[in-house]
Fold Molybdopterin adenylyltransferase.
Amino acid sequence: MAHEAVRIGIVSISDRASSGVYEDKGLPALKDWLTKALKNDITFDARLIPDEQPAISGALIELVDAGCSLVLTTGGTGPAPRDVTPEATLAVADKVMPGFGEQMRQISLRFVPTAILSRQVAVIRGKSLIINLPGQPRAIQETLEGLRAAGGEQLVDGIFAAVPYCIDLIGGPYLETNDDVCAAFRPKSARRAAS
Ligand SMILES: Nc1ncnc2c1ncn2[C@@H]1O[C@H](COP(=O)(O)OP(=O)(O)OP(=O)(O)O)[C@@H](O)[C@H]1O
Ligand SMILES: Nc1nc2c(c(=O)[nH]1)N[C@H]1C(S)=C(S)[C@@H](COP(=O)(O)O)O[C@H]1N2
């Protein structure tokens, strides 16, 4: 059976990247990782915006309304005065999904002691899962994929392992992963024959 199509929103939130002070590395990192990790045909809907709460909430609402089953943001999760991504995300939530933030901080602590400074959250809005990732571009792969030993053994699960089943549960398309990048976990009763 063919893989189902999926629309994914990617949002890079950075004052300096959005004003051209530096090149945005968030959107390319998100796109590359998702293209590597998923077998599905992906349509990306991308936004590069400054750290402004109304602009962030507005972009999230637009992306969900446009039919994105998953929206990933990067940046603006720290404690600095302009970091407001978690507030903007919570403001559009139907449900809060605390497990994602808890697991992301656990994973990130294996990479940097400052992981505890990220206030990242995940929420459900309508039929969409919205997840905040930290702004450091390498944090995208770190949190989504987790940590492997040199021999390939998975030491800490990345959060993406739980994303496909979450999207099943909210009525989205059936996401299939490339297991060498990130193996999705579903209970047996929710698995379809591999295609
Ligand atoms: N979109 C991006 N593209 C490239 N590098 C980024 C991006 N966002 C963040 N970074 C890098 O990661 C670091 C930490 O990200 P953070 O979100 O805290 O940025 P910031 O200090 O709030 O500034 P800004 O919002 O202007 O990116 C930045 O200092 C920068 O080096
Ligand atoms: N995996 C990972 N998580 C990370 C980091 C990182 O480099 N890798 N940086 C930390 C730092 S230094 C900060 S301040 C917070 C918040 O970053 P943000 O404001 O860029 O979202 O994320 C933290 N989480």
User: Anything to note?
Assistant: The longest strand covers residues 6-13. Residues 75-78, 83, 108, 111-112, 114-115, 117-118, 134-136, 139, 142-143 surround MTE (ligand 2) (CB under 6 Å). The chain is about 30% helix and 20% strand.
